[in-house]
Each structure stands twice: as structure tokens, then as C-alpha cells.
Amino acid sequence: MMAQYLELKAGYTDALLFYRMGDFYEMFFDDAVAAAEALDIALTKRGKHAGKDIPMCGVPVHAAEGYLLTLIRKGFRVAVCEQMESPAEAKKRGYKSVVKRDVVRLVTPGTLTEEALLEPRRHNYLAAFAEVRDASALAWVDISTGAFHVMPLATVRLSPELARLSPSELIVSEAKEPEFFELVSDFGLALTGIARSAFDSAAAEKRICDLFNIATLDAFGGFSRAEISAMGALIDYLEITQKGKLPLLRPPQKESETRSVQIDAATRRNLELTHSMTGGRAGSLLSIMDRTCTAGGARLLERRIASPSRSLETVIKRLDAISFCTEQRRLVQDVRDHLRKVPDLDRALSRLSLDRGGPRDLAAIRNGLAEAELLSSQLASFELPDLLNTAAKSLTGHTDLITLLDSALVAEPPLLSRDGGFIAEGYNDDLDESRKLRDEGRSVIAEMQQSFVSVTGISTLKIKHNNVLGYFVETTATHADKMLAPPLSETFIHRQTTANQVRFTTVELSEMETKILNAGNHALEIEKRLFESLKTAILESAAQIGVTASALAEIDLAAGLADLALAENWTRPKVDNSRAFDIKAGRHPVVERALAQQSGDPFIANDCDLSASNTDANIWLLTGPNMAGKSTFLRQNALIALMAQMGSFVPAASAHIGMISQLFSRVGASDDLARGRSTFMVEMVETAAILNQADDRALVILDEIGRGTATYDGLSIAWATLEHLHDVNRSRALFATHYHEMTALSGKLDGVDNATVAVKEWEGEVIFLHEVRKGAADRSYGVQVAQLAGLPDAVIARARVVLDALEKGEREGGATQKTLIDDLPLFSVSATPAPAPSQKSEVEEQLKAVMPDELTPREALDLLYKLKEAVKD
């Protein structure tokens, strides 16, 4: 056995080998040590090898999925080795023969299909990047849904696309694998290097044609050699990991960078589109917008948020669909009730194609298609907008398949086909007979006994059973002569004579005995055979089922976004090809939801008008204190633009958005110690990316450029950055800063306007109004904010002294910074003593004794005069 293990393990040195031993998957040697630590399970030993104990650990087969998920998340790959025959079959070859085993699958992060291993509302992409001469391309596939895409892509654009897709695994040529180590570390995905031969474009083209059973790729459109190479590498990797059992993939769809708004990784992170800064879904834009009822609809929503469209026609069609749904509230409620009953058709179909499906996947297809038919009939009487009309037409055409599955399957099938019991009664006569024999063997024998009594006329005749003879007919010796004489002797065969009884058998009884003993296994075999036939019928309609699944997702998303718009008071944006950017009473959807849940406070809405001519930039230079809401204002306008171009209503009283080509955000920063980058360096790298890439259709939001270095260095960098955005990039932009000197640029640059977040100062404290107004702030209120943060009173007092001295020197001029510092007394506790504990005044003492509910109006008025007199004193 161990020789067999070592032979199999030699083919999968970079993976843990799950070696099937009856009801367990067992691991040995280094695999056992690593798995035991990762899974927190016991490490034992089994036998010896080269004179040393062999480490061993194992996990139960029935619970293997949970352990697999843990290992995959911790960066392991797992080769699953199954028994290819039973121990009884192995013994036929010899007493010491080892059961045949082989690896049936290599489990990697990008090749998961099991329901328990996947997030139902997210795609699980496997991507491949190929370079052919001077060209390169990226292909990606989700084998759990069949989605297959490819696009030409320059190497410098790989990072933004990986940020958009968030694949679980990236395949590259093993010769270039080291070049991608640093890149993938940013995204937490698995990097897999495979042989260069897998990227050969000539072999890849044949591989693709064989997969889709076509003679030429022209049927799918024109592809470059790099695109063919990337797609072929994906298919080759799937053949390796799935051991030749390829998933059911849809024809590859060619994408283009120009079809969607370009958003880099830093911007996605800053705006928290699909994940919050903490890495989870909660707190992201996706979490706020997701009101879908189906897993397919949720995945479509994530794709839309990650890839806002640059096609005006597409955006308008999506908005029309949502508008229709907001007007037909009763219909949409009924539609959503149906959608809640729709299972995940895509993933059920994928599991069936890979032989990993079960009876519940058959039922999922049946139930999903049945609900699609009901939806179609419900929508038939309405004049639908183009997007919904196309989707509604794709819901039908499955009547025969639904009828077949409905007649064949029970309402609630078991999880595994080997459990049986999923085929409905009356569907197959042989199965019904086997089940009757299995479940009602005694009644069948009783019926046969009554038949024998009628034939022989012997009322005392019995059919009995023992472990030696099995089933037999027994009668008393008195009636034996009749049984032994013709014509009964032709039917009843003598088996045994005892002192008082004579025992017989018949051909019919022997056959029935065999049927009863084998009925259980026979029933299971029949069900397995029927399962295969039903699976085949489904896979023959796979393409049409996939179209229906996409249509259900489209309807679900439109209905979900309409439900969101009605509940949160969102409005339809006007989207066109102008350079307009005019938002009235815009709100940040995530912050607004958080306020409502935490404190119940309303969100202060604000306008933003960056509308400009077709040739001029338009930039708002935003000043105001920290914590006043500048960053929120910047983000909310970027999110509103993104939502508009993904085809959604937006949180605003009105919005007019001219199509944007790129969205850039540099809001907040942290250091990157792993790469040796300070906070300022990270800030500068992100700013450089914006200035080098932004075009005149881009929307840029920048916050506090230059804050990570010396004051004059930072001011000069921020100043030059704003000028470059205005003169060279000519973008629409929001630029927040604490450098009030920059407000002078509004008088020098035609496209720059000043705006500020309003505050009110009262009794030395600052009150944030969260209102954005035209104009410039004259102060940053940093000391007041520091006081709100809880800095000691002594520090706040000292800071005020220093600030007053510096501001006085700047106003008066002539005094150098060194002179000002020399003139300031050194900080000391005695110089700014901590305030003494306050003593309660007479007024406070009187108020403490007052019980307002017990006062008459006259008494309250007298008390007020009394307190006023006390204050005068």
C-alpha cells in the first residue's frame, strides 16, 4: 500500500495527497505534518519507512469538504485520490492485492465547484495571463457557472484588471512566475506557474476547438494569438486539475478595456466598492446595494459595480428597466416572490457537467425552470422595456424538460444519489417493483403463499425461511403425498423431510427469493441509471438553460435596484455624452445607512456642480477642517457617478452625469512596509498614476496631496498637481486640501472654483455643519479637532499659544520661524498647569435639588428669576 501511495504522491509533489482508505482520506509523511497543523487535528503514525515511523493523519470522507476549504484558504493545493474498485474486486486478483487508486481531481483555489466551498453570491474566477511576442492577454473563467471571458491587455494594465475581477488564482508561464510574485501579493490570490507548452497558441487553438466541438474559432469572433494562448492555457490547466473531465463552459466572450470605466486598484480600495477597508463585504457599496433575491442576480450586481459601462445605449436600457420596475410595484413584488424560489441554476448545471452533482441539482434545474415559466406568463401582459423584454423571452422553451424532471423526481430529493429515494413512484415500473420487494417483502411472500394454498387446496401450507434453505414451502406429512404426485409435483420440488413436515420449493419462489435479497441494491442501480439519463437530458439543454439563468439574473437585478430606489428615495440620473456633472442634494449611501442604523441622525445632502464646456476642465478646490466631511463629500460624488454608469438610480435629488471614461481616487493612505514604502511614497505613487493616465473624460478625487512631507514641499507638490490636472489632464476633479494658500488659484485658473465645508465656532469649540458651500476656509481648526479627540488640556493650551505666535509672526512679516521659536517659552507643566477640579456653583446646587415635574408654572417662573439673581451676584 505504501508503495502505491509514494508512486501517486510523486506525481503531485506540490499538493497534499488525500489518499482514500475506506471512510477516510489519509495523509502520510510531510503531508500529514503540514495538514495536522493546518487543520488542528491529531498527528499519529502508521508503520515504518526506512526504519522511521511514518507520520499519519486523516479526515472523514463525509466531512472532507470543510477540511478542504480550510486547506485551500491557507494556501494548499489538494490532490484527491479515490479507490477505483472495491476491496472484494481487488481480492479477485489475489489475496494480497492492493485496491486500485488514482487521483481524480486536483483542488485549487480557482477550480472549486462544491456548494460548501464557494460563496454563493460571488464569482470564483480562475485567470490566465499570456504574452506572445509584443502582445499580451488575460483570460478568465468561473467553472462553477461556466462564464468564460478574454481580453487583450497590456502588462501595465494587469493590476487594475485583477482588482476588478478579484480572481482566486492566476496562471502564468512557469518561466515568468517570479515576475508576478510582487503583483499577486497585493491581491491575496494564488499564483500558479505551468509549463510554457500550455501557452503555445497553435496547440491552444486546437484545444479550444476540441472543447467546443467546432472546426474554427471564427465562429466565436476574431482572437489574437495572445488571447488564444491565454484561453488555451486555462483549458490545459482545467484538464490537469479535473483529470480530463472538463466543465461545461460557455463560448468565450471577448471584452475590451474601452467598454467599461477604468478603475485602478487603489481607487477600488479607497471607494470600498465591493469590500470595505477591513476586507469584508460589510460597509462596502455592494453590501448597501444588494437587494437581489438570487445568487445569479447578486453575482451580476457585483460585476456591474466592478465594471460600470461606457456604452450610453447600455446604461439607458438598464435605467429604463429600473424605471419600469419602480412604476409597477405590485408586479415587481410578485416577481421577487418568484425569484426567491429560484435556485442557483448556473452552479447546479456546472456540478452536473463535472459529475459532482446530485439529485438536488436535478431538482434545482427543475424548480428554477418552472419558476422561470411562471415569471414569463406573469410578464407577458405588460409592455416591457427592451432589456426586460429580451430577458422575458429567454425564460421559456423548457416545457418538455420540466415535465420530464417533474414526473421523475420527488419534491425534496436527498443530497447524494447513492442514498436513493429521489425517483418518484410510478416513473419506472422496474424500480417500483424493486422497492416493493425491498420494503414489502413479507407481504409479497404472503400473497404468494395464498396463491399456493389456492393451487394445492392445502389450507395449512406455509412459506417459511431459515438461513440454510432460505425461503421454502412447508406442509404436514399428511398432505405430502398430494404434493409429491402429479400435477403438483411438476411445480413443487422436494427439498427436505423432517419428522412431521415436508419442505418444497418452486422456481417462482426461488426467483422471488433472489429478487427480494437483491431488491435494495437493484433499486439503487436503477436510480443511478435514471440519474444519468436525467443528467444527460439536462446537459443537452445546457446552453438554453444558461440563457435562462442569465435572464433571471437580469430581471432580479433590475427588480432589486428598483426596490432599493423606492426604499431609499433614490432618483434616476440623466446620463449623456456631455461633460456635465451636476448633482443636487447628493448623499453617501454607505454613510447614510450607517447613520440611520447607529444614531438615527439624517445625512446632510450637498450639491456638486463640475459641469464644464467640452474643452475646459472643471475642478472644485475644497477646504475645511478635518472631520467636517470633506472625504465623505469626495467619495459620495465618485460613487454617484459610478452608480449612474452601472445603470442604477442614485442617492440624490437629481443628477446629470456626462459619461466618464476613468475614475481615480486618492483618499487616505497608509504605509506599505513590505515594499519599503512610507505613507508619503504610497501617496505619491498613487498620485503619479493619476496624472500619467487621466484623460479629459476622467473623474478625479484627490484628498490632502502633499500632507506626508514638509509644509512647503507638500504645498508645492499639491499646487503643481492641481495645475497639471487643469492644464494637461483637463479632467473633472474634486481636490481637498488644508493648504489655504492654494485658494488663490481660483483667480488664476478659469476651471478652478473654491468650495468649503461649513463649520460654526462657539465658545472655543467647533461645530461641524457638514454643508458644502462656495468659498474658501480661512482656518483648519486643527487645535479644536484635537481637543475633540481628547488630547490633554495642557497640550491644547500650549498648542494655542504656539499657533497664535506663528500666525502673528506670519501676519506681521519679517520674523523668521527661528526667531518665533526662540521667543516662545519652553513647554512646562508649571507654564500651563492642569486645571483644578471644578467646584459646583450655588446655581448648580439649586438646580440639583429641583424636580421639574413637580413645579407649577408659577413656581418655575419664580425659580428662573431666583437663578438669574444668583448669576448676577
From TrEMBL:
One BP annotation, GO: mismatch repair
Binding site for ATP: 624-631
Molecular function, one GO term: ATP-dependent DNA damage sensor activity
Domain DNA mismatch repair proteins mutS family: 698-714
Keywords from the UniProt entry: ATP-binding, DNA damage, DNA repair, DNA-binding, Nucleotide-binding
SUPFAM superfamilies: DNA repair protein MutS, domain I, DNA repair protein MutS, domain II, DNA repair protein MutS, domain III, P-loop containing nucleoside triphosphate hydrolases
Gene Ontology CC annotations of this record: cytosol
Annotated InterPro entries: DNA_mismatch_repair_MutS (IPR005748), DNA_mismatch_repair_MutS-lik_N (IPR007695), DNA_mismatch_repair_MutS/MSH (IPR017261), DNA_mismatch_repair_MutS_C (IPR000432), DNA_mismatch_repair_MutS_clamp (IPR007861), DNA_mismatch_repair_MutS_core (IPR007696), DNA_mismatch_repair_MutS_N (IPR016151), DNA_mismatch_repair_MutS_sf (IPR036187)
Zinc listed as a keyword: no
PANTHER family documented for this protein: DNA MISMATCH REPAIR PROTEIN MSH1, MITOCHONDRIAL (PTHR11361:SF34), DNA MISMATCH REPAIR PROTEIN MUTS FAMILY MEMBER (PTHR11361)
Function: This protein is involved in the repair of mismatches in DNA. It is possible that it carries out the mismatch recognition step. This protein has a weak ATPase activity.
Family classification: Belongs to the DNA mismatch repair MutS family.
HAMAP family (alphabetical): MutS
Name of protein: DNA mismatch repair protein MutS
Originating organism: Sulfitobacter mediterraneus
Gene field: mutS
